[in-house]
Amino acid sequence: MQQLTGLDASFLYLETPNAPMHISGLAIYDQSTAPGGKVRFKQIIENTAQRIRRLPALTRRLVTVPLGLDHPYWIADGSFDPEFHIRHIALPAPGDWRQLCILISRIHARPLDRGHPLWELYVIEGLDNMEGYPNNCFAIFTKMHHAAVDGASGMEITAATHDLSPVVAQPSEPYSITVDQKPGTLGLLARAQLNTLKQPFRFVSVARNTVPGFARLYSRLRRGELQRVKNIPRTRFNDAVSAHRVFDAVTFPLQDIKDIKNTVSGTTVNDVAITICGGALRKYLLSKDELPEASLAAMAPINVRDSAEKGKGGNIVSTMTVPVRSDIEDAMERLRAVHEGTSQAKEYANAVGAKTMTDYTQFIPSTLTALAARLASRWGLLNQMDPLYNCVITNVPGPQVPLYNTGARMIANFGTGPVQDGLGLFHVIGSYCGDFTISATACREMMPDPEFYRDCLNESFAELKKATAKTSPKKAESRTRKSASRRRKKAA
User: Fold this and answer.
1) Which sequence positions are flagged as catalytic?
2) CA distance 454 to 460
3) Which domains, ranges and CATH numbers included, belong to the chain?
4) Poorest-confidence range of 5-19, 93-107, 281-295?
């Protein structure tokens, strides 16, 4: 039995009927690579169940402490049933991309059942009219609660449930789930009391290690070496969310993103993604006559998981506030401004330690946090506060080698995230096998036209690509020579 950390538990406390707190992934597969060119639903169940039994994050369920006096526990009680979690559906004719996005939006909007391990998997067939995808392909949509995984641990789960070839790997040794003894009410209350007595000593230990970092941060702010993001404007995405969602995504060549990145010294792929999103938000709000003069800002999660913490599931993330520079029309100028803003945000996070705030989440009061979340949602308190962010932009890099599920090759991978009151737009940046994707999840009341926002993302990328293509002939010639050299070496 393992207790949730304060950060993991916060995603349970912040969950409301209109704001489920799970993250999801949409993968599309070409089953022509599977033996016989066909994958059966039964095969997917057997293969997935065999691998998931080895992942504690997906086989344990929640046990709550009476009266919410402490954070909940994960417990493996032997009741894990793969067929409850893995479901089979199909799109009606014609089975196109728009229908798939609508279906994903509906499934993503539904909360997970807390009486079972917090995940679901949907095998979706009927994708018969998907432009750019082969005939007879199928999709898998996976939902996992944010209390159990973050983006990085979700990618670890993806790696564990896939193969590097169409040949399905068999486990090298048998595996059995260790069944925990279910704790009684008195036992849970005793643990809660013991943890309460230990909290002051833990707080002193964390404070001793972090106070010097806060002192350095304050000193650098006073000297003007660091700047906080302030005066964030309120937009349509900073309101109470409904229970309905929309989803759409765009795909670009990863090499184009890298070429754009290389035009400005020090710029990262993440900077390019933020610039594209900033341009799209500018176009979208301008069309509604709602574009603020000040730049919008995004919450950008930071993976602070070290090598010793890989494979443990849960959340080990911090965040930084990044201006998306929606106030700048010129794409090239926006890219430079975004790079400057992300550099400042990284310095700000490093000044105090990116992992510091995750340490302080251990002291989140469980009862008060859950009550505050419900009251804030019911009374619309977030509408009376200045926004901290306008949207979320999270980058979860994927593998650049093909992955296979039950012999079927994954040909595309997208992501969805939770939206909540005051933060109704969530971008997932991903990459896989030479493709670069931006997926957008939003409240349907705030973004009733996701197809138009997809067009805005495409136009923003096209403008940025055109602006950065104006490089000097010498640089272009140099890149051409290097590419030719690499091709000759590869051929040799």
Assistant:
1) 146
2) 10
3) 1-483 (3.30.559.30)
4) 5-19
